[in-house]
Recover the amino acids of this structure.
């Protein structure tokens, strides 16, 4: 897998100023027996930044977060979060970070209010103006006596996020926070994430949703435990070299078979009844592609040039790395 610049980053990160960066990971590695879940991952996140981890299931996103939270000891490498070495001062670290795990971790047999009180007791936080404000923003002020186990998934996620920020952490780790949440509620989550960021909280979030990843200020793409690419969403999309076309046709499978035999076609990705075609040959334009398909008896072809989306970049980089 191509990891240009990643090794150089490790040397550069060692000289970074902890007053400017909330997260600095250098060569972070975690092995489970013979299996390497995270392999020499190096990156940094500035204070107040929203940084997204994007990758398929099993890529190493959650394992990386658990190491950064001090819940897993790295096999190799180092990480500093809020200026604290995660392997040496995990108790101090827990007072300064918030963590919302992928699996719902609150107590179903307690009410919403009891769960909130429990977490306030754990962190020694008090009923602040921030707590009252976020109770209203989340709509949980009207559900304080509801049993947590009876809440729909979206409401459980709201409660989990609230409990993760009650103590006003410097760094917030969110592992798939909107999984199973409807689109309207997902946007509400992101409004809150950016509100926290505007107040100085650093947020590292993993997500499967490309439209969510677009809202991150920077992204790290992780495949097979390796950090393959990182940058702004715009920079990531610019990793695609060539011309991208979209074809809409009922016979997408047959079109794919034809296109695979044409030199200069670097990638073919299905999107429902559409195909995204990447041409790396500057002479292989939409007109010539359509002509090739018509000659194969595919009838009228609807083809247009499109700018690459983050999903196009993700698929392209994933396939190139595998």
């Amino acid at each position: 897998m191509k990891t240009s610049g990643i090794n150089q980053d490790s040397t550069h990160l060692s000289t970074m100023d902890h007053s400017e960066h909330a997260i600095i990971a250098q060569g972070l590695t975690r092995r489970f027996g013979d299996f390497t879940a995270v392999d020499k991952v190096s990156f940094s996140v500035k204070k107040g930044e929203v940084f997204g981890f994007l990758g398929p299931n099993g890529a190493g996103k959650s394992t990386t977060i658990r190491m950064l939270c001090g819940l897993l000891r790295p096999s190799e490498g180092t990480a500093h979060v809020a200026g604290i070495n995660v392997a040496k001062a995990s108790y101090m670290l827990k007072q300064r970070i918030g963590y919302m795990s992928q699996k719902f971790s609150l107590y179903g047999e307690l009410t919403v209010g009891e769960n909130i009180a429990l977490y306030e007791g754990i962190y020694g936080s008090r009923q602040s103006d921030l707590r009252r404000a976020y109770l209203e923003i989340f709509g949980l002020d009207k559900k304080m006596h509801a049993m947590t186990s009876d809440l729909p998934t979206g409401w459980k996620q709201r409660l989990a996020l609230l409990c993760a920020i009650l103590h006003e952490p410097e760094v917030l780790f969110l592992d798939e926070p909107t999984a199973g949440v409807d689109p309207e509620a997902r946007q509400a989550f992101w409004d809150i994430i950016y509100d926290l960021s505007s107040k100085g909280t650093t947020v590292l979030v993993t997500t499967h949703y490309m439209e969510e990843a677009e809202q991150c200020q920077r992204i790290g793409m992780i495949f097979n435990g390796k950090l393959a690419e990182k940058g702004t969403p715009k920079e990531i999309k610019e990793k695609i070299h060539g011309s991208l076309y979209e074809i809409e046709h009922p016979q997408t499978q047959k079109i794919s078979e034809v296109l695979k035999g044409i030199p200069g076609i670097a990638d073919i990705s299905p999107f429902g009844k559409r195909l995204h075609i990447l041409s790396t040959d500057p002479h292989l334009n939409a007109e010539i592609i359509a002509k090739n398909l018509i000659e194969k008896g595919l009838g009228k072809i609807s083809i247009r040039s499109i700018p690459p989306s983050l999903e196009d970049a993700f698929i392209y980089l994933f396939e190139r790395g595998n």
Notes: Confidence is low (pLDDT under 50) at residues 1-8. The first helix runs from residue 6 to 13.
